[in-house]
Amino acid sequence: MTDVATHKGNDLMTDEHVRQYWEDGYTIVRNVFTEAEIEQMRTACDRWKFTGNLLGRTWRKQNTVIWVDEDRDTGTTVRGMQWPSYHDAVMDKFRTDPRMLQLIEPLIGDSVKQIINQVHWKRPGSRTTWPLHRDVRSRQPSSAFIDLFESWVQTGIAIDPHTTANGAMSVVPGSHLDVEHDPDDKSVWNAPEYGADPRIHPFELEPGDVGLWSAYTVHGGGFNTTKHHDRRLYINGFVKADKCTRGEWAWDQGRTCGLYGEPALVQFDEVDEIRNAFYASELNRKEVIRD
User: Fold this and answer.
1) What range does the domain containing 255 cover?
2) Does residue 232 lie in a domain region?
3) Phi and psi at residue 265, in whole multiples of 5°?
4) Does residue 238 sit within a domain?
5) CA atoms within 13 A on the CB side of 97
């Protein structure tokens, strides 16, 4: 187990947050972003949701992908997207906001690459959900990551209130310590059995809060059963730069790295071979949502 004493907090990510992260597998830092800043993110997310609805189908441009499904209850539904930050100054600004580095530096240091830059929408009444799982399932190929347990942290900025009613995810404290940290052990990737675990509880957030969780922490989201309350979450996943052969640089010894030049190899293996935008259906491709 990680020696918590070697990880010191700061004014934002306190020692108590650090302790909870390593011992429980998650923590929540409240009121990181202001209402004015969250409103900027809401507006940016709405632009991308409008774009997804306009496209009408799952669409990709290298690392940027918008997932669009046909929902039996709500029709054409934008479920999420990856890497808006290549094309959106607002989303790009907040993924490397200095406060984000303050949150993750006590956990993984200040030389960091980014794998996940993602927005999730949960439309009221839709069938969009995320069954209980561990994010290690998406850190593929496993050979690209070293010591994933200690080198990776996932973050989620709440853009809307996250409540049980609108599909807030649930988390199982301590579940990151229930298994061996073998990234190739597929038996631990999906974890429906934790639905009956007495430790499970809602991961409720208010706009501006930031949640952090481990690649091995069991979590998942319910349905948005409200009539009018959307649920947007801005997810950014970071890894120690010297422990990963993929990803876009976010910070190099604390210095912010911009998205310049050609996109890096992140999750889309053909980022250099397929440079033009395409609809997944036209190329007979199944674009699987990764978190």
Assistant:
1) 14-283
2) yes
3) -70, 120
4) yes
5) 19
In this structure, the dihedral spanned by the alpha carbons of residues 102, 106, 210 and 48, taken in order and rounded to 10 degrees, is 70
Q: What is the pLDDT of residues 108-147, one digit of tens each?
A: 999 999 999 999 999 998 877 889 999 999 999 999 999 9
Question: What are the tens digits of pLDDT across the range 244-275?
Answer: 999 999 999 999 999 999 999 999 999 999 99
Peptide bond into 141 cis (omega under 30): yes
pTM of the full structure: 0.96
> How many Å apart are CA 219 and CA 173, to the nearest integer?
9
Domain count for the chain: 1
| CATH number of the domain enclosing 248 | 2.60.120.620
Output the six-digit token pair for 121: 């929408």
Residue 1 is assigned to a structural domain of this protein: no
